[in-house]
Specification:
Radius of gyration: 25 Å
Structural class: alpha/beta
Distance between the termini: 39 Å
Largest sheet: 8 strands, mixed
Strand order of the largest sheet: 7-6-5-3-2-1-21-22
Number of strands: 27
Strand content: 25-35%
Shape: globular
Bound molecules: zinc ion
Helix content: 25-40%
């Protein structure tokens, strides 16, 4: 897809290439090469903007990996967040080596491999903090860090030209929920021995002070457990295992049952319990189908949907469309997560739906119900001053965050000799380290690939340039006009297809039926659903996909465009 050539590794040179996550939020991935050996660090996804219709996920362009081919010897994972492991299933077929990760990280990958029908169990290698592995010229040590989920590590990679430290995602939580402390000692030791380069998480560089521990949310939740007369429904990321533990413990204390609601949260809670990272006292957990059988004031629901995702549990519950869970007037819904930029509108819509149910809504701007998993400025400074690298490369962030992190690093190291050099790199920059120093030397091909999950394949890149999917199954655009006030269908929906034709007559009859599917879908929806563009678009997309699959056996890319008139 990308025609740019991947340059060969220069002899006697360590080359590090960020393939994602530098200059954007998410899809973190990096390649580290010495002569014939390349190792990869993380392979994450980015979530699309709500206006990127028909796209479920975004992954880094893998041209670089394909070009390196058999030189790619291993994938090393820092932790199990989607922005670090979400693209792993797409990467597995492109190289042959093992995948190293902690038990939690690898466990979170298993269901993804199942979904993608990848039989790769024999390539998964469990490692833990303190472990060291050797891959060609590299020795990789795993170091415990704290973050918003268990079992996260930083990496110290010994290379022929020096030690490279990669922090992964971290904050410095000095009262960790699982009692496993950030290994500050090891960072300090490495700093004393001499570190060539530090690659450090920049996510929260624009927040001053310290981020604060996970236990900080307990006070606000204690208040909510005390004051809530009905159900307490907390929406959170399904990977927020520590937050779940805090809430489960409070539920036990305040004698509420706990129900996990939503596919990904049920799955992750199950994995975390199996590995011993989430401890649920006996007799407390109930199924979502049992929620209605208990008095509301005795129930805590932990649900997906903190970002207003149309298909998630909270969104369904908020419009009274969940199979088991209903909201009542005394219930309180808590958003225990930050809004990922771009999701504000969807979240606001969900809040309005909740308000219509008469339930109360609490967000982190009202009460301290969320604490970030990323270190703020003082924590980032501490790591720099412990590690004392010769070269500093800010990672994980938009360009403004990377450059702010660079400024902070220079200030921290101002009086230290030899002078710190900052390499302000972006995706695709080839960063070279050799006997003479370090520099950004060249550019490797990078980019974004859009993924349509239901099809498990590529849709195309940012501007749908990649036609592979379209060529195979085509695209159908449905333009649907609806009334702004009542959400009713106005006129006939208009359908346009490309690469999905069966002759004029067949197409006309198929589109007539598809228009019927649209009309029926809209009519059978509640007023609240009909007037919610995000929800309606998703619903129409699903219905039309099903219809075309059934009728033709093919899965065109379906893009419903809702116009309010
Ligand atoms: Zn991350
Ligand atoms: Zn993370």
């Amino acid at each position: 897809m990308n025609q740019t050539v991947v340059p060969a590794v220069s002899p006697g040179t360590l080359e590090i290439v960020p393939l994602g996550g530098l200059g954007e939020f998410g899809m973190n991935m990096m390649a580290v090469s010495w002569e014939e050996t390349t190792i990869l660090i993380d392979a994450g996804v980015m979530f699309p903007d709500p206006d990127q219709l028909g796209v479920d996920l975004i992954i880094p362009d893998m041209t670089f990996v394909e070009a390196r081919g058999s030189q790619v010897k291993a994938l090393i994972l820092t932790h199990g967040h989607e922005d670090h492991i979400g693209a792993v299933p797409h990467l597995m077929p492109l190289f042959e080596g093992p995948v190293y990760g902690t038990p939690m990280t690898l466990a979170l990958l298993e269901p993804k491999f199942e979904e993608h029908q990848l039989d790769v169990a024999d390539r998964l290698k469990t490692v833990g903090p303190g472990d060291t592995i050797t891959i060609g010229p590299f020795t990789i040590e795993f170091i415990r860090v704290t973050h918003s989920m268990p079992d996260c590590v930083a990496l110290a990679i010994t290379t022929p030209v020096g030690v490279v430290v990669h922090t992964g995602d971290f904050k410095i939580d000095q009262t960790p929920i699982d009692g496993e402390h950030f290994d500050l000692h090891r960072f300090a030791e490495l700093g004393r021995q001499g570190v060539l380069a530090l690659f450090a998480d920049s996510t929260n560089i624009d927040r001053k002070g310290f981020t604060g521990p996970e236990i900080e949310v307990i006070d606000a939740f204690e208040e909510l457990f005390t004051s809530t007369g009905g159900k307490l429904l907390v929406a959170l990321f399904s990977s927020s295992i520590f937050r779940m533990q805090v809430l489960v413990d409070l539920a036990a204390q305040f004698e509420r049952k706990v129900a996990f609601v939503g596919r990904s949260i049920v799955k992750n809670a199950e994995i975390a319990q199996r590995l011993g990272f989430l401890r649920v006292p006996a007799g407390i957990q109930i199924r979502d189908s049992d929620v209605a059988n208990y008095p509301a004031q005795e129930v805590l629901c932990l649900a997906t949907g903190s970002q207003g995702e149309p298909q998630a549990a909270l969104s369904r519950i908020a419009i009274d469309d969940h199979r088991h869970v209903r909201l009542g007037e005394d219930d309180v819904v808590v958003l225990s997560a930050r809004a990922i930029p771009g999701n504000e509108k969807a979240i606001a819509r969900t809040m309005s739906h909740v308000a219509r149910r008469g339930a109360d809504m609490v967000t982190d701007s009202m009460k301290h119900v969320h604490v970030s998993g990323h270190g703020s400025a003082e924590e980032l400074k501490l790591i720099i001053s412990l590690v004392r690298p010769r070269f500093f490369v800010p990672i994980h962030g938009e360009y403004r965050q990377l450059s702010q992190h660079a400024r902070v690093a220079r200030r921290v190291m101002a009086g230290v000799e030899p002078k710190l050099q900052v390499l302000l790199a972006q995706d695709g920059d080839i960063i070279q380290f050799d006997a003479k120093g370090a520099r950004i030397a060249d550019k490797a091909p990078t980019g974004r690939v859009l993924i349509d999950v239901t099809r498990i394949g590529e849709v195309g890149d940012e501007v749908l340039r990649d036609r592979r999917h379209l060529a195979a199954d085509g695209i159908v655009i449905a333009v649907v006009a609806i009334g702004r006030q009542n959400g009713r269908l106005i006129g006939e929906p208009e359908l346009v297809a490309r690469g999905f034709v069966f002759g004029e007559e067949a197409e006309a009859s198929m589109f007539k039926d598809a228009a019927g599917v649209i009309a029926e879908c809209i009519e059978s929806s509640s007023l609240e659903e009909r007037t919610d563009q995000g929800l309606m678009t998703e619903k129409l997309r699903g219905e039309l996909r099903r219809y075309f699959k059934k009728r033709t056996g093919r899965r065109p890319l379906v893009l419903p465009v809702l116009m309010e008139i």
